[in-house]
């Protein structure tokens, strides 16, 4: 295999409509869904070879039963260059809006956060190179193809990156369940960076020190904390509501 395998109707469709090189499309033998037929046409238009496979073979190839009868062999995910991302955002007519994910470990949480970020209109997402999940097939599937629409930069040091962003005129808002200031009472304005910490540990101390404001989501009972992707989704849309 030349590259990596992504699967699921939306991730495969978004990839074929994007710029990543695609090599082979694998389709379940008895798949007749109209969405699958559209994907096959997209593949043929791009000159991608189409192969029919039994469901059990697709399950083995994808190491998952959630392939929806379709998988695509593509080149490895291409992360955006941080400097290029910042140049692009600076040329926009609107305020910059970035999502920074500090040590998210679960690919499903990562994918869900990128999907929410895309819907909230972020200009880009930034993730760490080490001790965190990268863009995997599982993350792509959970994002429903959103990783193809949002530039995602991978950096060596999140704390240092936040320091650079502050010098570029961004206000850094960290999401922390223990913070006293509510996300709903925060006056987001200008260029905004929303930082979401990893599952369990939250934002790391060195990263937290770079935050200008630390905010939380009020809770009214139930368990003690929200899932990282759920909390991130709520905060993303509250920021978007106030700056977009």
Task: Give a written overview of the molecule.
The chain has 244 residues and is an alpha/beta fold. It folds into 2 domains: 4-74, 2-Layer Sandwich (60s Ribosomal Protein L30, Chain: A), CATH 3.30.1330.30; 82-243, 3-Layer(aba) Sandwich (Alpha/beta knot). It is built from 9 helices and 11 strands. The chain has helices spanning 9-17, 34-45, 55-62, 82-90, 107-120, 137-142, 158-167, 205-209, 228-243; strands spanning 4-7, 22-28, 49-53, 70-74, 97-102, 124-128, 152-155, 170-175, 181-182, 191-197, 213-216. The chain has a 7-stranded parallel beta sheet, sandwiched between helices. Strands 1-4-2-3 form a 4-stranded mixed beta sheet. The mean pLDDT is 93.
Helix/strand layout:
Layout: E1 4-7, H1 9-17, E2 22-28, H2 34-45, E3 49-53, H3 55-62, E4 70-74, H4 82-90, E5 97-102, H5 107-120, E6 124-128, H6 137-142, E7 152-155, H7 158-167, E8 170-175, E9 181-182, E10 191-197, H8 205-209, E11 213-216, H9 228-243
Parallel strand pairs: 2-3, 5-6, 5-10, 6-7, 8-10, 8-11, 9-11
Antiparallel strand pairs: 1-4, 2-4
Helix pairs in contact: 1-2, 5-9
